[in-house]
Design brief:
It is built from two helices and 15 strands. It is mainly β and about 210 residues long.
Length: about 210
């Protein structure tokens, strides 16, 4: 990527920043669609407010098929670019926890969790992973590496930045998959402002992105 075409870094020091999301799933003509609301760049998802959220109550209020509480989570990226994930500037209050609609996810006909399977997300974001940063990756049997963009403490509250390198032994990965940790020898920019992001999760609900 040339210096002239390189996106602008707008929000630095994102690694380790906490956030939470509410995924509201609706039945549309094209299938099941999840609208993603998140606290990113608004607040750090205080635990006392997060604990008041009830997925069934939110689904009833929003008229959703169901709601998934996604998090809390911590960023593994280093910065956001000039176009931060915004589907529309729609704000919503969940029991005092302010969130913004940041993405939509196409779920097809089956919304059940599918670990190690690609999902496509309309998020319009730019992620930066700095040269010299530690990154954690899931690698498919074909050698495709997906970079961890955020880890989740909703499933395992003991996860933290220091022990992420050790979780490979705990993951029940499909045959041929592997987990690795490495130090980047160059900056990586994941720009999905003009295309859908490709993401997947492991069974601890850590999220990974495909560099594009």
């Amino acid at each position: 990527m040339s210096q002239l075409s390189k996106p602008e870094r707008v929000h630095d020091n994102m690694r380790g920043v906490r956030y939470g999301e509410v995924l509201a799933v609706f039945l549309r003509e094209e299938g099941l669609i999840a609208e993603v609301y998140g606290t990113q760049l608004i607040n750090d998802c205080p635990q006392d407010l997060w604990d008041t959220l009830n997925a069934d109550d939110i689904a009833k209020e929003m008229g959703a098929v169901f709601v998934k509480l996604n998090g809390p989570r911590y960023w593994c990226i280093d910065a956001f670019g000039s176009k931060v994930a915004l589907v529309e500037p729609v704000m919503r209050d969940f029991n005092g926890l302010t969130m913004r609609r940041i993405a939509t996810v196409e779920l097809g006909k089956d919304p059940s969790p599918k670990f190690y399977a690609e999902r496509h997300v309309n998020r319009g974001a730019i992620f930066f992973f700095n040269k010299g940063s530690e990154v954690h990756e899931l690698v498919s049997p074909e050698g495709v590496a997906y970079m961890m963009q955020a880890y989740c403490v909703g499933v395992d509250p003991t996860l933290n930045a220091d022990n992420l390198k050790d979780i490979g032994a705990r993951l029940k990965m499909p045959e041929g998959w592997s987990y690795r940790t490495r130090i980047l020898d160059e900056e990586i920019v994941v720009d999905t402002t003009e295309t859908q992001a490709t993401v997947l999760q492991d069974e601890l609900e850590n999220s990974y992105t495909l560099p594009v």
